[in-house]
Amino acid sequence: MRDYAVAMSDPIVILTEEPLGPDDRVNIAKLVDGSDAPLVVLVPANTERHLLVDFLENLSLLEIAKAFRELTAQSPDPAAERAEASETLTASLAALAGLGGGVTGEVVDGGAVAGLVSKVRALDAAQAVVVTRPHAIADTFHTDWANKAQDQLGLPVLHLYAGSGFIGDS
User: How far is CA 164 from CA 30, 67, 130, 131, 144, in A?
Assistant: First the structure.
């Protein structure tokens, strides 16, 4: 069984659905805490959101017009989703530049959680971080990415809300 103490150079894998910014850099810098741990940023090409969950989430946030607009919207174009993910990755890499032992990243095809789990195992990473905007329904019922990844990995997964110091419940 792996010892969960993080070595100074163990990689930290970060899955994000949002472009990381200055507040996220502060949070990740606290996590790195001056170590030379390499950071690996993953951005899913497709966030695989569930239409009904999105609708209920928008209603719970009193975003009624947005809820109905997204309910009637057409399916997103895979090329456009990949281009948006690439922009998110570029912004995130720039936001974290200079932290730890270097920052690399990639756009993940397929499931976001599967990509995170695969990368953590491939790198034998000691820490995984998920950065999302709050998702009322998924967070409440523990079906968010952080909880799913934690269940599959058997190690704690830190869940941060993008652009804030708030920590999700995973």
Answer: 13, 24, 13, 10, 18
Tokens of 55: 């609708």
For 61, 67, 80, 113, 149, the CA distances from 55, given in Å and listed in that order, are: 10, 5, 22, 22, 24
Phi, then psi, of 57 in degrees rounded to 5: -65, -45
Report d(CA 95, CA 109) in Å as an integer. Answer: 22
pLDDT (tens digit, 9 = 90+) per residue, 43-76? 999 755 554 456 555 555 556 666 556 655 556 6
Q: Report d(CA 94, CA 125) in Å as an integer.
A: 22
- Label residue 24 exposed, middle or buried (CB < 10 Å: 0-12, 13-18, 19+): buried
Rounded to two decimals, what is the model's pTM? Answer: 0.77
Chain-centroid distance of CA 100 in Å reads: 18
Query: What amino acid occupies position 163?
Result: G
